[in-house]
Amino acid sequence: MGKEVVIGLVGKPSSGKSTTLNSLTDANAKVGAFPFTTIDPNKATGYLEIDCACQRFNLQNKCKPNYGYCRNGKRGVPIMLLDVAGLVPNAHLGRGLGNKFLSDLTEADCLIHIVDASGTTDAEGKATRGYDPLYDIEWLQDEIFRWILGNLKERWGSVVRKHIGTKSTTLETLRQQLGGYSANKQMVGKALDLIPNLPPLQDWNSDIIEKVVKAFMEIKFPTVLALNKMDHPDSDKNVSKIILKYPKSKAILTSSITEVFLRKLANQNYIKYDSGTEFIDTKEDLPDDPDLKDLDEKLKNRIENIRDLVLYRFGSTGVVQLLQAAADLLHLIPVYPVRNIHNFTGNSNDYVFRDCILVKRGTTVIQVARKIMGDVTIAAIEGVGGVKIGEEDIVDKGKNDILSFKLVPSSK
User: Fold this and answer.
1) What gap in Å lies between CA 213 and CA 147, rounded to an integer?
2) Residue of 222, 230, 290, 324 with fewest CB within 10 Å of its CB?
3) Confidence class of residue 90 from pLDDT cuts 50, 70 and 90?
4) Which segments constitute the OBG-type G domain (predicted)?
């Protein structure tokens, strides 16, 4: 079985990290048991919203996932979230929970950095006004950089001697040095490819080592910036500054507190709310809806404000888009294994597309089979319409993403 994809959430105290985590994990009450075997105290199940395959065949009314949910063709696929706690300046020196914080980070395939874009909390998370959130982003990057660089430089002399003594390739030596950050050969190779005209490892000076560490960080810690509290009046100028400074980063404007509030109202039947969109309906909008309750003046005003300041202005609270941005950075594709390729059902013949797993774009069909079933002997693989599919065919969005595996009998 391949390792589960893990998305790490980082953010200083009071940046809105816990609220964001709540808004990503609740998904309107837990649905379906969990596909993950172990969940540590700092792990949670989030739900990545995708367009479900049931839409393509107009089978929305028969879609009932084993895990997660599907509402009118919008499917929430479970994905593992890691709450990385203990973000403090000088973590790389082991201050506070510094070392635990940094080693927790390595488990993540991608980071969502929750930044208080309003500038109303300082570096330690205390209330203030006019703080520059650019520091928080620079600081996190710098902290990871100093940690990896420090570990590498400390041993550099012996690394070079061993490298020359064993006649290893640069890739092999670096993989051994960076393997502790859950990095494989492919990842280290990609990082080295980012640096043109790299001299032999024994000739590297400090500048080159720093370049290599920065390139490795780009590959190992792709980061989505969640620019939170976007509806605060001070956020506009800060958001522009951050986007100018980090044009290549994925930045998503969010108001996680609004999302949590709207879901609470929806659960209490004060509103109908389609998460990830700008649409809220109240009893005034849907007078004939028997489930909706009347709003008092105070709630009416709050909802009007939310519509004006958040939803109509930004298109949504941004929270649903966070996991979508992370999935894009990781090139994740949903794949639907089905038992019956003609009607897309599983063991029970009523519901369709019961299972959905996330794999990286470019994964082969046989790798998908291994991920789902482990090491079994496969007799045949079929795609939509019963078309035969080769083991080495590649999975992509809408291509080879609905699969039926026929096993050789007795390989059970």
Assistant:
1) 10
2) 290
3) confident
4) 5-274
